[in-house]
Design brief:
The structure holds two protein chains of two kinds. Chain A is of the alpha/beta class. Chain A contains four helices and five strands. Helices cover 48% and strands 19% of the residues of chain B. Chain B is an alpha+beta fold. Classes of the chains: A alpha/beta, B alpha+beta.
Chain lengths: 118, 449
Protein backbone atom coordinates (compact mmCIF):
# COMPACT_ATOMS: atom_id res chain seq x y z
CA UNK A 1 0.00 0.00 0.00
CA UNK A 2 1.45 3.39 -1.01
CA UNK A 3 2.00 5.92 1.77
CA UNK A 4 -0.17 9.01 1.36
CA UNK A 5 1.48 12.45 1.48
CA UNK A 6 -0.38 15.78 1.54
CA UNK A 7 1.66 18.55 -0.12
CA UNK A 8 0.73 22.19 0.55
CA UNK A 9 2.63 24.51 -1.81
CA UNK A 10 1.35 27.68 -3.52
CA UNK A 11 3.97 27.71 -6.29
CA UNK A 12 2.47 25.72 -9.13
CA UNK A 13 5.81 24.78 -10.72
CA UNK A 14 7.13 23.47 -7.40
CA UNK A 15 3.90 21.56 -6.80
CA UNK A 16 4.36 19.78 -10.11
CA UNK A 17 8.05 19.05 -9.45
CA UNK A 18 7.46 17.63 -5.95
CA UNK A 19 4.47 15.62 -7.14
CA UNK A 20 6.49 13.98 -9.90
CA UNK A 21 9.65 13.42 -7.89
CA UNK A 22 7.89 12.01 -4.82
CA UNK A 23 5.54 9.83 -6.89
CA UNK A 24 8.64 8.35 -8.46
CA UNK A 25 9.77 7.41 -4.93
CA UNK A 26 6.59 5.40 -4.59
CA UNK A 27 4.35 7.79 -2.64
CA UNK A 28 0.77 8.75 -3.32
CA UNK A 29 0.84 12.56 -3.49
CA UNK A 30 -2.11 14.90 -3.06
CA UNK A 31 -1.06 18.47 -3.86
CA UNK A 32 -3.02 21.59 -2.84
CA UNK A 33 -2.06 25.27 -3.13
CA UNK A 34 -3.47 26.72 0.11
CA UNK A 35 -4.19 25.90 3.74
CA UNK A 36 -7.98 25.84 3.43
CA UNK A 37 -7.80 23.22 0.69
CA UNK A 38 -5.38 21.22 2.84
CA UNK A 39 -7.78 21.21 5.81
CA UNK A 40 -10.61 20.08 3.52
CA UNK A 41 -8.49 17.14 2.25
CA UNK A 42 -7.50 16.20 5.80
CA UNK A 43 -11.13 15.74 6.75
CA UNK A 44 -11.67 13.13 4.06
CA UNK A 45 -8.38 11.27 3.78
CA UNK A 46 -6.03 9.69 6.28
CA UNK A 47 -2.57 10.92 5.29
CA UNK A 48 0.70 9.46 6.51
CA UNK A 49 2.66 12.71 6.24
CA UNK A 50 2.20 16.42 5.47
CA UNK A 51 4.67 18.70 3.72
CA UNK A 52 3.83 22.40 3.92
CA UNK A 53 5.24 25.73 2.80
CA UNK A 54 4.98 28.66 5.23
CA UNK A 55 4.38 31.80 3.16
CA UNK A 56 1.20 31.29 1.19
CA UNK A 57 -1.73 33.53 0.29
CA UNK A 58 -4.47 33.35 2.92
CA UNK A 59 -3.61 31.23 5.96
CA UNK A 60 0.14 30.62 6.31
CA UNK A 61 1.84 27.32 7.05
CA UNK A 62 2.26 28.04 10.76
CA UNK A 63 -1.47 28.70 11.17
CA UNK A 64 -2.12 25.49 9.26
CA UNK A 65 0.12 23.48 11.60
CA UNK A 66 -1.61 24.96 14.64
CA UNK A 67 -4.98 23.93 13.28
CA UNK A 68 -3.80 20.43 12.40
CA UNK A 69 -2.49 20.02 15.95
CA UNK A 70 -5.93 21.07 17.21
CA UNK A 71 -7.47 18.25 15.17
CA UNK A 72 -5.32 15.82 17.22
CA UNK A 73 -4.39 13.86 14.14
CA UNK A 74 -1.02 12.39 14.81
CA UNK A 75 0.50 13.00 11.40
CA UNK A 76 4.19 13.88 10.98
CA UNK A 77 4.70 17.33 9.42
CA UNK A 78 7.65 18.63 7.39
CA UNK A 79 7.98 22.38 6.87
CA UNK A 80 9.48 23.18 3.49
CA UNK A 81 10.16 26.89 3.23
CA UNK A 82 12.43 29.21 1.26
CA UNK A 83 13.14 31.00 4.53
CA UNK A 84 15.79 29.78 6.90
CA UNK A 85 14.66 32.40 9.43
CA UNK A 86 11.33 30.75 10.31
CA UNK A 87 13.31 28.10 12.14
CA UNK A 88 13.62 30.67 14.91
CA UNK A 89 9.84 30.95 15.22
CA UNK A 90 9.06 28.51 18.02
CA UNK A 91 5.73 27.61 16.42
CA UNK A 92 7.67 25.87 13.68
CA UNK A 93 9.22 23.61 16.34
CA UNK A 94 5.87 21.86 16.51
CA UNK A 95 6.67 20.35 13.12
CA UNK A 96 8.70 17.17 13.01
CA UNK A 97 11.24 18.50 10.53
CA UNK A 98 12.24 21.73 8.83
CA UNK A 99 13.77 21.52 5.36
CA UNK A 100 14.86 24.69 3.55
CA UNK A 101 13.88 24.56 -0.13
CA UNK A 102 16.72 23.50 -2.38
CA UNK A 103 17.05 22.50 -6.02
CA UNK A 104 18.15 19.06 -4.80
CA UNK A 105 15.27 17.18 -3.19
CA UNK A 106 17.60 14.69 -1.48
CA UNK A 107 17.27 16.17 2.02
CA UNK A 108 13.48 16.29 1.72
CA UNK A 109 13.32 12.70 0.49
CA UNK A 110 15.60 11.53 3.35
CA UNK A 111 13.42 13.27 5.96
CA UNK A 112 10.27 11.69 4.50
CA UNK A 113 11.82 8.24 4.70
CA UNK A 114 12.98 8.83 8.26
CA UNK A 115 9.59 10.09 9.48
CA UNK A 116 7.72 7.26 7.77
CA UNK A 117 10.09 4.78 9.40
CA UNK A 118 11.33 3.41 6.11
CA UNK B 1 -21.70 80.86 11.21
CA UNK B 2 -18.29 79.29 10.80
CA UNK B 3 -15.46 80.71 8.73
CA UNK B 4 -12.55 78.53 7.68
CA UNK B 5 -8.98 79.70 7.10
CA UNK B 6 -6.05 77.77 5.69
CA UNK B 7 -3.14 77.33 8.11
CA UNK B 8 -0.74 77.74 5.21
CA UNK B 9 -1.72 80.77 3.15
CA UNK B 10 -0.74 80.35 -0.50
CA UNK B 11 0.63 83.88 -0.74
CA UNK B 12 1.82 86.38 1.80
CA UNK B 13 -0.39 89.26 2.81
CA UNK B 14 1.20 92.45 1.51
CA UNK B 15 -0.41 94.69 4.10
CA UNK B 16 0.61 92.61 7.10
CA UNK B 17 3.29 94.07 9.34
CA UNK B 18 6.69 92.94 8.12
CA UNK B 19 7.34 91.06 11.36
CA UNK B 20 4.24 88.96 10.85
CA UNK B 21 5.08 88.34 7.22
CA UNK B 22 8.58 87.22 8.14
CA UNK B 23 7.37 84.81 10.82
CA UNK B 24 4.72 83.48 8.47
CA UNK B 25 7.31 82.71 5.78
CA UNK B 26 9.69 81.01 8.20
CA UNK B 27 6.99 78.98 9.96
CA UNK B 28 5.88 77.61 6.60
CA UNK B 29 9.26 75.94 6.10
CA UNK B 30 8.12 73.29 8.61
CA UNK B 31 5.35 72.20 6.25
CA UNK B 32 6.81 72.57 2.79
CA UNK B 33 7.70 69.52 0.71
CA UNK B 34 11.03 70.96 -0.42
CA UNK B 35 14.55 69.93 0.51
CA UNK B 36 16.23 71.20 3.66
CA UNK B 37 18.45 73.38 1.47
CA UNK B 38 15.50 74.95 -0.36
CA UNK B 39 13.70 75.68 2.90
CA UNK B 40 16.82 77.14 4.50
CA UNK B 41 17.25 79.42 1.51
CA UNK B 42 13.68 80.65 1.95
CA UNK B 43 14.48 81.46 5.58
CA UNK B 44 17.51 83.43 4.41
CA UNK B 45 15.32 85.15 1.81
CA UNK B 46 12.84 86.16 4.48
CA UNK B 47 15.67 87.74 6.43
CA UNK B 48 17.06 89.58 3.43
CA UNK B 49 14.08 90.51 1.27
CA UNK B 50 12.63 93.99 1.37
CA UNK B 51 9.48 92.50 2.79
CA UNK B 52 11.26 90.75 5.63
CA UNK B 53 13.50 92.25 8.27
CA UNK B 54 15.40 93.79 5.43
CA UNK B 55 19.01 92.84 5.95
CA UNK B 56 20.94 92.91 2.70
CA UNK B 57 22.67 89.56 2.98
CA UNK B 58 22.40 86.42 5.07
CA UNK B 59 24.93 83.61 5.54
CA UNK B 60 24.25 80.27 7.09
CA UNK B 61 26.61 78.04 9.09
CA UNK B 62 25.39 74.56 10.03
CA UNK B 63 26.69 72.32 12.79
CA UNK B 64 27.96 69.02 11.44
CA UNK B 65 29.29 66.75 14.16
CA UNK B 66 31.58 68.94 16.27
CA UNK B 67 32.18 71.46 13.46
CA UNK B 68 30.44 74.62 12.43
CA UNK B 69 30.60 74.81 8.66
CA UNK B 70 29.79 77.61 6.18
CA UNK B 71 26.91 76.32 4.04
CA UNK B 72 25.12 78.95 1.97
CA UNK B 73 24.53 82.61 1.58
CA UNK B 74 21.87 84.74 -0.01
CA UNK B 75 21.96 88.29 -1.13
CA UNK B 76 22.69 90.57 -4.04
CA UNK B 77 26.22 91.25 -5.26
CA UNK B 78 25.57 94.89 -6.13
CA UNK B 79 23.05 97.68 -5.52
CA UNK B 80 21.49 97.07 -8.97
CA UNK B 81 21.05 93.41 -8.26
CA UNK B 82 19.58 94.25 -4.87
CA UNK B 83 16.95 96.46 -6.49
CA UNK B 84 16.04 93.67 -8.88
CA UNK B 85 15.72 90.98 -6.19
CA UNK B 86 13.62 93.13 -3.91
CA UNK B 87 11.37 94.05 -6.81
CA UNK B 88 10.73 90.37 -7.57
CA UNK B 89 10.07 89.52 -3.95
CA UNK B 90 7.68 92.43 -3.52
CA UNK B 91 5.49 91.29 -6.43
CA UNK B 92 1.92 90.90 -5.18
CA UNK B 93 0.79 87.28 -4.90
CA UNK B 94 4.26 85.84 -4.47
CA UNK B 95 4.21 82.67 -2.36
CA UNK B 96 6.56 80.11 -0.90
CA UNK B 97 6.92 78.14 -4.13
CA UNK B 98 7.82 81.24 -6.13
CA UNK B 99 10.48 82.16 -3.58
CA UNK B 100 11.95 78.64 -3.84
CA UNK B 101 12.04 78.89 -7.64
CA UNK B 102 13.57 82.35 -7.47
CA UNK B 103 16.25 81.20 -5.00
CA UNK B 104 17.25 78.21 -7.12
CA UNK B 105 17.91 80.57 -10.02
CA UNK B 106 19.81 83.00 -7.79
CA UNK B 107 21.99 80.32 -6.22
CA UNK B 108 22.95 78.83 -9.56
CA UNK B 109 24.03 82.34 -10.63
CA UNK B 110 25.96 83.00 -7.42
CA UNK B 111 27.73 79.65 -7.24
CA UNK B 112 31.02 81.25 -8.34
CA UNK B 113 31.11 84.08 -5.80
CA UNK B 114 30.81 84.03 -2.04
CA UNK B 115 29.48 80.48 -1.77
CA UNK B 116 32.71 78.64 -2.44
CA UNK B 117 34.68 80.92 -0.11
CA UNK B 118 32.04 80.58 2.59
CA UNK B 119 32.09 76.80 2.28
CA UNK B 120 35.81 76.89 3.06
CA UNK B 121 35.12 78.29 6.54
CA UNK B 122 35.01 75.59 9.24
CA UNK B 123 35.21 76.16 13.01
CA UNK B 124 35.16 73.97 16.09
CA UNK B 125 31.58 74.12 17.39
CA UNK B 126 32.59 73.95 21.05
CA UNK B 127 35.75 75.90 21.67
CA UNK B 128 36.35 78.15 24.68
CA UNK B 129 38.65 80.36 22.63
CA UNK B 130 36.47 80.46 19.51
CA UNK B 131 36.70 83.51 17.30
CA UNK B 132 33.74 85.30 15.75
CA UNK B 133 31.60 84.04 14.04
CA UNK B 134 31.94 80.67 15.92
CA UNK B 135 32.09 82.61 19.23
CA UNK B 136 28.36 83.41 19.05
CA UNK B 137 27.38 79.75 18.54
CA UNK B 138 29.75 78.51 21.25
CA UNK B 139 28.42 81.03 23.79
CA UNK B 140 24.83 80.78 22.54
CA UNK B 141 24.69 84.59 22.37
CA UNK B 142 23.53 87.04 19.74
CA UNK B 143 26.42 89.32 18.81
CA UNK B 144 26.33 92.65 17.00
CA UNK B 145 29.81 93.38 15.67
CA UNK B 146 30.80 96.95 14.68
CA UNK B 147 34.20 98.11 13.42
CA UNK B 148 35.04 94.49 12.86
CA UNK B 149 38.55 95.10 11.50
CA UNK B 150 39.69 96.61 14.80
CA UNK B 151 38.07 93.83 16.87
CA UNK B 152 40.64 91.12 17.77
CA UNK B 153 37.89 88.52 18.45
CA UNK B 154 36.87 88.46 14.77
CA UNK B 155 38.46 85.75 12.64
CA UNK B 156 40.40 87.46 9.84
CA UNK B 157 39.58 84.82 7.23
CA UNK B 158 35.89 85.36 7.91
CA UNK B 159 36.33 89.13 7.71
CA UNK B 160 37.96 88.76 4.29
CA UNK B 161 34.99 86.76 3.05
CA UNK B 162 32.26 89.01 4.44
CA UNK B 163 34.07 92.29 3.72
CA UNK B 164 31.92 94.56 5.97
CA UNK B 165 32.52 96.33 9.28
CA UNK B 166 29.10 95.74 10.82
CA UNK B 167 27.27 92.42 11.03
CA UNK B 168 24.98 90.43 13.30
CA UNK B 169 25.58 86.84 14.51
CA UNK B 170 22.46 84.84 15.45
CA UNK B 171 23.08 81.37 16.93
CA UNK B 172 20.45 78.84 15.90
CA UNK B 173 19.25 76.92 18.94
CA UNK B 174 16.96 73.94 19.27
CA UNK B 175 16.23 72.63 22.74
CA UNK B 176 19.58 73.30 24.34
CA UNK B 177 21.72 72.49 21.33
CA UNK B 178 23.31 74.75 18.77
CA UNK B 179 22.40 73.60 15.26
CA UNK B 180 23.96 76.48 13.34
CA UNK B 181 24.39 80.22 13.01
CA UNK B 182 23.15 82.96 10.72
CA UNK B 183 25.22 86.06 9.92
CA UNK B 184 23.35 89.12 8.67
CA UNK B 185 24.69 92.35 7.24
CA UNK B 186 23.80 95.43 5.21
CA UNK B 187 26.67 95.28 2.75
CA UNK B 188 24.79 97.13 0.01
CA UNK B 189 22.79 99.87 1.75
CA UNK B 190 25.23 100.30 4.68
CA UNK B 191 22.22 100.97 6.95
CA UNK B 192 23.09 100.53 10.64
CA UNK B 193 21.49 97.48 12.29
CA UNK B 194 18.77 98.60 14.73
CA UNK B 195 17.77 97.02 18.10
CA UNK B 196 14.34 96.18 16.60
CA UNK B 197 16.02 94.29 13.74
CA UNK B 198 18.12 92.36 16.25
CA UNK B 199 15.07 91.29 18.29
CA UNK B 200 13.17 90.09 15.26
CA UNK B 201 16.18 88.32 13.78
CA UNK B 202 16.61 86.58 17.17
CA UNK B 203 13.07 85.17 17.00
CA UNK B 204 13.70 84.04 13.42
CA UNK B 205 16.86 82.32 14.67
CA UNK B 206 14.84 80.34 17.23
CA UNK B 207 12.34 79.25 14.60
CA UNK B 208 15.01 78.41 12.04
CA UNK B 209 16.93 76.42 14.67
CA UNK B 210 13.88 74.38 15.54
CA UNK B 211 13.12 73.80 11.88
CA UNK B 212 16.66 72.49 11.24
CA UNK B 213 16.41 70.29 14.34
CA UNK B 214 13.11 68.72 13.34
CA UNK B 215 14.22 68.28 9.71
CA UNK B 216 17.37 66.49 10.91
CA UNK B 217 15.36 64.24 13.21
CA UNK B 218 12.98 63.45 10.37
CA UNK B 219 15.89 62.52 8.13
CA UNK B 220 17.29 60.18 10.81
CA UNK B 221 13.88 58.56 11.15
CA UNK B 222 13.76 57.98 7.39
CA UNK B 223 17.19 56.30 7.58
CA UNK B 224 15.94 53.95 10.30
CA UNK B 225 12.87 53.15 8.21
CA UNK B 226 15.09 52.53 5.22
CA UNK B 227 17.18 50.02 7.19
CA UNK B 228 14.03 48.20 8.26
CA UNK B 229 12.89 48.06 4.64
CA UNK B 230 16.28 46.69 3.58
CA UNK B 231 15.94 43.88 6.13
CA UNK B 232 12.50 43.05 4.89
CA UNK B 233 13.77 43.19 1.34
CA UNK B 234 16.54 40.68 2.03
CA UNK B 235 13.92 38.27 3.44
CA UNK B 236 11.63 38.82 0.49
CA UNK B 237 14.36 38.37 -2.11
CA UNK B 238 15.42 35.09 -0.52
CA UNK B 239 11.93 33.74 -0.96
CA UNK B 240 11.25 35.24 -4.36
CA UNK B 241 14.52 33.99 -5.81
CA UNK B 242 14.73 30.66 -4.07
CA UNK B 243 11.42 29.38 -5.44
CA UNK B 244 12.30 29.83 -9.14
CA UNK B 245 15.79 28.46 -8.49
CA UNK B 246 14.38 25.31 -6.87
CA UNK B 247 12.06 24.84 -9.86
CA UNK B 248 14.84 25.44 -12.39
CA UNK B 249 17.20 23.06 -10.56
CA UNK B 250 14.60 20.35 -10.09
CA UNK B 251 13.32 20.33 -13.66
CA UNK B 252 16.89 20.45 -15.01
CA UNK B 253 17.76 17.37 -12.93
CA UNK B 254 14.82 15.58 -14.52
CA UNK B 255 16.12 16.49 -17.98
CA UNK B 256 19.53 15.04 -17.17
CA UNK B 257 18.06 11.60 -16.55
CA UNK B 258 18.18 9.09 -19.43
CA UNK B 259 15.25 8.47 -21.76
CA UNK B 260 13.19 11.58 -21.08
CA UNK B 261 10.25 11.65 -23.50
CA UNK B 262 10.30 14.56 -25.99
CA UNK B 263 7.02 15.88 -24.63
CA UNK B 264 8.39 16.11 -21.09
CA UNK B 265 11.60 17.74 -22.32
CA UNK B 266 9.59 20.48 -23.98
CA UNK B 267 7.41 20.96 -20.89
CA UNK B 268 10.41 21.19 -18.55
CA UNK B 269 12.25 23.61 -20.81
CA UNK B 270 9.14 25.81 -20.96
CA UNK B 271 8.90 25.85 -17.17
CA UNK B 272 12.62 26.65 -16.87
CA UNK B 273 12.31 29.50 -19.38
CA UNK B 274 9.29 30.93 -17.51
CA UNK B 275 11.08 30.77 -14.17
CA UNK B 276 14.14 32.51 -15.62
CA UNK B 277 11.83 35.20 -16.98
CA UNK B 278 10.42 35.55 -13.47
CA UNK B 279 13.90 35.95 -12.01
CA UNK B 280 14.60 38.66 -14.57
CA UNK B 281 11.39 40.47 -13.64
CA UNK B 282 12.27 40.33 -9.96
CA UNK B 283 15.74 41.71 -10.56
CA UNK B 284 14.42 44.46 -12.84
CA UNK B 285 11.74 45.57 -10.39
CA UNK B 286 14.03 45.51 -7.37
CA UNK B 287 16.64 47.53 -9.22
CA UNK B 288 14.01 49.98 -10.38
CA UNK B 289 12.60 50.49 -6.88
CA UNK B 290 16.01 50.93 -5.28
CA UNK B 291 17.51 53.10 -7.97
CA UNK B 292 14.72 55.50 -8.81
CA UNK B 293 15.89 58.74 -7.31
CA UNK B 294 13.08 61.20 -7.08
CA UNK B 295 13.52 64.65 -8.51
CA UNK B 296 12.49 67.85 -6.76
CA UNK B 297 8.80 68.56 -7.35
CA UNK B 298 7.81 71.29 -9.81
CA UNK B 299 4.46 72.70 -10.93
CA UNK B 300 3.21 71.29 -14.25
CA UNK B 301 0.00 70.51 -16.14
CA UNK B 302 -0.95 66.88 -15.33
CA UNK B 303 -3.40 66.62 -18.29
CA UNK B 304 -0.96 65.50 -21.01
CA UNK B 305 0.68 62.98 -18.63
CA UNK B 306 -2.65 61.37 -17.75
CA UNK B 307 -3.73 61.29 -21.41
CA UNK B 308 -0.44 59.72 -22.49
CA UNK B 309 -0.66 56.93 -19.87
CA UNK B 310 -4.30 56.18 -20.72
CA UNK B 311 -3.47 56.12 -24.43
CA UNK B 312 -0.40 53.89 -24.00
CA UNK B 313 -0.56 50.42 -25.59
CA UNK B 314 0.00 48.71 -22.18
CA UNK B 315 -3.00 50.37 -20.57
CA UNK B 316 -5.17 49.97 -23.67
CA UNK B 317 -4.36 46.24 -23.77
CA UNK B 318 -5.14 45.82 -20.08
CA UNK B 319 -8.37 47.79 -20.46
CA UNK B 320 -9.78 45.30 -22.96
CA UNK B 321 -12.85 43.67 -21.47
CA UNK B 322 -13.33 46.51 -18.93
CA UNK B 323 -15.22 49.78 -18.99
CA UNK B 324 -12.63 52.55 -18.53
CA UNK B 325 -14.20 55.89 -17.56
CA UNK B 326 -12.08 59.01 -17.75
CA UNK B 327 -13.42 62.25 -16.31
CA UNK B 328 -11.07 65.23 -16.07
CA UNK B 329 -12.15 68.78 -15.28
CA UNK B 330 -11.54 71.10 -18.22
CA UNK B 331 -8.47 73.30 -17.94
CA UNK B 332 -6.70 71.43 -15.12
CA UNK B 333 -4.61 73.43 -12.65
CA UNK B 334 -0.86 72.91 -12.37
CA UNK B 335 0.12 70.36 -9.72
CA UNK B 336 3.28 70.02 -7.61
CA UNK B 337 5.06 66.72 -8.35
CA UNK B 338 7.94 65.28 -10.33
CA UNK B 339 6.36 64.88 -13.82
CA UNK B 340 8.12 61.57 -14.63
CA UNK B 341 7.12 59.99 -11.35
CA UNK B 342 3.57 61.29 -11.81
CA UNK B 343 3.21 59.30 -15.04
CA UNK B 344 4.37 56.16 -13.22
CA UNK B 345 1.93 56.79 -10.41
CA UNK B 346 -1.01 56.96 -12.81
CA UNK B 347 0.17 53.79 -14.58
CA UNK B 348 0.59 51.96 -11.26
CA UNK B 349 -2.85 52.93 -9.98
CA UNK B 350 -4.53 51.83 -13.21
CA UNK B 351 -2.54 48.57 -13.21
CA UNK B 352 -3.69 47.78 -9.67
CA UNK B 353 -7.30 48.67 -10.49
CA UNK B 354 -7.38 46.32 -13.50
CA UNK B 355 -5.61 43.54 -11.59
CA UNK B 356 -8.10 43.75 -8.72
CA UNK B 357 -11.17 43.79 -10.95
CA UNK B 358 -12.67 40.79 -12.74
CA UNK B 359 -13.21 41.21 -16.49
CA UNK B 360 -16.40 43.13 -17.26
CA UNK B 361 -15.83 45.49 -14.30
CA UNK B 362 -15.37 49.24 -14.39
CA UNK B 363 -12.27 51.33 -13.72
CA UNK B 364 -12.77 55.10 -13.40
CA UNK B 365 -10.13 57.80 -13.30
CA UNK B 366 -11.08 61.33 -12.26
CA UNK B 367 -9.19 64.58 -11.92
CA UNK B 368 -10.77 67.54 -10.15
CA UNK B 369 -10.06 70.55 -7.93
CA UNK B 370 -10.63 69.96 -4.23
CA UNK B 371 -10.17 73.67 -3.57
CA UNK B 372 -8.06 76.53 -4.92
CA UNK B 373 -4.78 74.90 -3.79
CA UNK B 374 -5.48 71.17 -3.97
CA UNK B 375 -6.06 68.83 -6.90
CA UNK B 376 -7.39 65.29 -6.58
CA UNK B 377 -6.57 62.39 -8.89
CA UNK B 378 -8.76 59.42 -8.07
CA UNK B 379 -8.89 55.86 -9.43
CA UNK B 380 -11.89 53.69 -8.56
CA UNK B 381 -12.46 50.05 -9.42
CA UNK B 382 -15.34 47.62 -8.96
CA UNK B 383 -13.01 44.79 -7.98
CA UNK B 384 -12.70 42.49 -4.99
CA UNK B 385 -11.85 45.24 -2.48
CA UNK B 386 -9.69 44.83 0.60
CA UNK B 387 -9.94 43.71 4.20
CA UNK B 388 -8.91 46.17 6.92
CA UNK B 389 -5.66 44.35 7.79
CA UNK B 390 -4.72 44.43 4.09
CA UNK B 391 -5.48 48.15 3.96
CA UNK B 392 -3.12 48.81 6.87
CA UNK B 393 -0.26 47.08 5.08
CA UNK B 394 -0.86 48.52 1.60
CA UNK B 395 2.12 50.85 1.57
CA UNK B 396 4.60 48.47 3.16
CA UNK B 397 7.20 47.42 0.61
CA UNK B 398 6.84 43.78 -0.51
CA UNK B 399 3.29 43.44 0.75
CA UNK B 400 1.11 42.14 -2.08
CA UNK B 401 -2.20 40.39 -2.59
CA UNK B 402 -1.40 39.68 -6.23
CA UNK B 403 -0.19 36.25 -7.26
CA UNK B 404 2.65 37.70 -9.33
CA UNK B 405 3.07 41.08 -7.64
CA UNK B 406 6.21 42.37 -5.95
CA UNK B 407 4.43 44.80 -3.63
CA UNK B 408 6.50 47.76 -4.78
CA UNK B 409 3.91 49.82 -6.71
CA UNK B 410 2.10 51.45 -3.79
CA UNK B 411 5.27 52.05 -1.71
CA UNK B 412 6.62 53.86 -4.78
CA UNK B 413 3.47 56.00 -4.96
CA UNK B 414 3.80 56.80 -1.27
CA UNK B 415 7.42 57.82 -1.72
CA UNK B 416 6.52 60.17 -4.56
CA UNK B 417 3.60 61.67 -2.62
CA UNK B 418 5.77 62.19 0.47
CA UNK B 419 8.35 63.98 -1.65
CA UNK B 420 5.83 66.45 -3.07
CA UNK B 421 3.88 66.95 0.16
CA UNK B 422 0.77 65.23 -1.21
CA UNK B 423 -1.67 62.92 0.55
CA UNK B 424 -3.17 59.52 -0.21
CA UNK B 425 -6.65 58.39 0.84
CA UNK B 426 -7.89 54.83 0.39
CA UNK B 427 -11.48 53.65 0.73
CA UNK B 428 -12.36 50.00 0.24
CA UNK B 429 -14.58 47.19 1.46
CA UNK B 430 -14.39 43.51 0.64
CA UNK B 431 -16.38 42.88 -2.52
CA UNK B 432 -17.08 46.57 -3.01
CA UNK B 433 -14.05 47.70 -4.99
CA UNK B 434 -11.48 50.31 -4.00
CA UNK B 435 -11.00 54.06 -4.36
CA UNK B 436 -7.53 55.61 -4.28
CA UNK B 437 -7.38 59.41 -4.00
CA UNK B 438 -4.13 61.27 -4.48
CA UNK B 439 -4.21 64.90 -3.35
CA UNK B 440 -1.58 67.25 -4.76
CA UNK B 441 -0.74 70.88 -4.06
CA UNK B 442 -2.01 72.86 -7.05
CA UNK B 443 -2.17 76.36 -8.47
CA UNK B 444 -4.03 77.91 -11.36
CA UNK B 445 -2.21 78.27 -14.64
CA UNK B 446 -1.10 81.76 -15.51
CA UNK B 447 -3.16 82.96 -18.44
CA UNK B 448 -1.00 84.03 -21.33
CA UNK B 449 -2.57 86.96 -23.18
Amino acid sequence: MKKKILLVEDEKALCLLYEEELSREGYDITAVTDAEAALAKLEKTAFDLIITDIRMPGKNGIELITQIMGLRKDIPIIINSAYQSYKEDFMTWAADAYVVKSSSLDELKAKIKQLLGE
Amino acid sequence: MIEKYSILSPDFERDAPRELMLLSIISQSFFQPFSLEDNLLVILTALTSGSGVGFNRAMLFLKQGDRLKGEMWLGPRSAEEAGLIWEVLSTPGIGYVEIVEHNRALVSKNEDTLSSRLKGLVYAAEDECALIPAYAACRKEILLVRQASSEPLVDRRFLNVIGVEEFLCIPLLARDDVVGEIILDNAITRTPISPADIKLAGICGLMAGNYIYSATLHRKLLDVEKMAVMGEMAMFVTHQIRNPIVAIGGFTDQLLKPDVPEEKKLRNLTIIRDEIQRLEDIIYQMGHFLKVSLKEPVYFDPGPSIASVIGSPEVQTKARGYALNVKLEPCLPEILCDPTSFGEIVRNLLDNAFDATPAGGTVSIRGYRKNSTAFVLSVRDTGRGMTNPDKDQLFRPFFTTKEKGMGLGLPFIKRVMDTCGGKIEVQSRVGKGALFKLIFFSREKELTP
